[in-house]
Design goal:
Layout lengths: L4 H22 L9 H24 L7 H12 L5 H27 L20 H15 L3 H22 L7 E2 L2 E2 L2 H10 L7 H19 L7 H5 L2 H15 L4
Antiparallel strand pairs: 1-2
Helix pairs in contact: 1-2, 1-4, 2-3, 3-4, 5-6, 6-8, 6-10, 7-8, 8-10
């Protein structure tokens, strides 16, 4: 089961901290004081604490009943005086909570109803993609089926934006589309991937990307504009080609 990014980021940070603590124990190094391992441990704790804060913000309002347990396990993992075995036990228990309690709870309450028709994009294309992309694609279809065309166009825009970022992340080039610790806006993402020489985007993808952005932008930002059915229908062939192309370069092709 794919976990939401907030949970996965927390697990990744805890994993890094545990790996460092394991290496320190193997080399009989302290995690307290001002030594090299202590300094690196402090950095890992900061990273994990930031991830924990974002996770708790995400979980608030979702009726998750085990937040106290999560915080307690993380406290053990971050404590420099915890024994290695105690830290490992806390990590295993935390992983169990995430995967058997929190993850299924969020999936049950956040997962959109699967649309009866897939008139915008086939969900089969996303079977190897992360769960969040599958949800966005389902929402693009569902909104279209309900004639919520502005919302459908915004979801299409989000698919394109997310896939461009996935391509760069999966190929280890995410810093090229970042300004500080934030990803560029979609207009700049489209320019970046359109001008790069690493991945051979087909001609239709290069032609369609600005159009998909434009349709989504108008739906999201134009105050008096209302997207119509034909506005979306005329981009569907190009959308399919673009999604195929980007999924391939991100390593998610079905």
């Amino acid at each position: 089961m794919d976990l939401v990014p907030e949970i996965q980021t927390c697990i990744n940070a805890a994993t890094d901290l545990l790996a460092l603590a394991t290496t320190a124990a193997r080399n009989n190094k302290s995690l307290q004081g001002h030594g090299n391992y202590a300094s690196r441990f402090h950095d890992c704790v900061v990273t994990l604490s930031i991830a924990e804060k974002k996770l708790m913000q995400f979980l608030s309002g979702r009726a998750v009943t085990c937040c106290d347990q999560i915080e307690n396990k993380l406290l053990v993992i971050k404590n420099p005086v915890s024994t290695l075995q105690t830290r490992k036990d806390a990590f295993r228990e935390l992983d169990f909570i995430f995967k058997t309690i929190v993850g299924p709870h969020i999936a049950q309450h956040d997962e959109p109803t699967k649309p009866n028709e897939e008139l915008v994009i086939s969900l089969a294309l996303f079977k190897n993609a992360p769960a969040y992309l599958q949800r966005v694609a389902a929402q693009a279809n569902g909104c279209f089926n309900e004639r919520w065309f502005d919302a459908s166009a915004v979801m299409i825009r989000r698919i394109v934006e997310s896939l461009i970022i996935e391509v760069y992340e999966k190929n280890g080039r995410s810093t090229e589309i970042q300004s500080g610790d934030q990803y560029l806006m979609l207009a700049d993402l489209v320019k970046k991937i359109g001008s790069q020489t690493y991945w051979a985007l087909n001609r239709e993808t290069q032609k369609t990307l600005p159009l998909l952005k434009s349709v989504g932008d108008r739906s999201a930002h134009a105050r008096y504009y209302g997207t119509q059915r034909n506005d979306i229908e005329r981009i569907l062939v190009g959308l399919r080609v673009t999604v195929d192309n980007l999924l391939q370069h991100a390593g998610y092709a079905p």
